[in-house]
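Subject: Protein record for review, amino acid sequence with C-alpha cells
Why sent: The fold of this protein is of interest and is recorded here as C-alpha cells.
Enclosed: The protein record, placed directly beneath this head.
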Amino acid sequence: MADRRPVIITCAITGAIHTPSMSPHLPANAEAIIASALGAAEAGAAILHLHARDDETGQPDQSVEGFARIVPPIAAQTDAVLNLTTGGSPYMTVAERVRPAAHFAPQLASLNMGSMNMGLFPMQARYPDVLGWEKAHLEGSRDLVFRNSYDDIAHVLAACRDNGTRFEFECYDTSHLYNLAHFADTGAVQPPFFVQTVFGLLGGIGAHPDDIAHMRRTAHRLFGDDMVWSALGAGAHQMRVAATVVSGGGHVRVGLEDSLWSGPGTLSASNAEQVRTAVTLIETLGCRAATPEEVRTMLCLPNQKIAA
C-alpha cells in the first residue's frame, strides 16, 4: 500500500448549477447536505467541497447563516478537509460569495481564477418543466457572465489572508492558469498551488483528451513541482476525465455538483456512490485514495479548526 500513489478525491456535494427538480438525490437542504457530505467522506473523499442551499426552496444560499447550518455539524463528525466555496453562484457578487470563507476560516476555500460565460441554458431541453427560480436560473444564463475580475480575485485573497486559508484554484480555461501565474509572480499566492482544472462546462474549455493534455502541459510549464494538479469533468464527462487525469499523475473531483449521473440515463443515488466509483477507478489504475492527513501535508494546509 505504501508504494501506491495517493490520489486526492474531492467530492463537491451540491454546488449551485443543478436544481432540485433535476434529481431527487441532489442534496438541497441542510440536513441532506450534512448527511451526503458525511457519506462521501466515509466512502473515501478526503476533501468536501461545500455550498449551502435555502432549506425551503433549494436555491443557492451564500449567507453565513446558511453555512452555519452545515459547516459546524460536518466538521464535528469527520476529519475530511472542508473546502468552502467562494464561487457561490454566478448570479452573486464577490462580496456575497466570500462571506462564509471569511467568517469560518476553513483550511481550504475555492477561488475561481477568471471571468467566463456560464451557459446553463442547454439543460432546459432536458428539464422543460422547471418553474420559478429554477427556470430563471437556466434561462438567465444566456446573458450571464460569471465575473471573476482581478479585483474580485484580490478581494477574496485579502478577505481570507488573515485566516491562513489556502485555496483550490478553479481554472476553467487556459487564461485562468495564466491569471494564477500572475498572482503567483506578484507574491499574492504561495505554493503549493492546488490547481483544479474544469472540463466540459459551456463557456469554458471542452473535455476532449486534447483539452485535458493542453491544460496539463500548460499548468506544468507554469508551475512545475509547485503544483498539485486535479481535475473534474462536468456531466457525462466525469469519470472519463477522472481516468485520464489519474493516468496522467493527477487528482480528481467528483460529486453531484459536477454531475448528476452514474451512467447513461441513470441518476447517481448519492455523492458516496460517485466517490466509491472514483476509489475503484483509482485502485484499478494502481493508486489509492489519499487520506485527509496526507492531503493536509500535500497542500500545506494550516493547522486550524473551523470557526464556530
About this structure: Residues 6-298 form a domain with the TIM Barrel fold (CATH 3.20.20.70). Residues 173 and 205 are 5 Å apart (CA to CA).
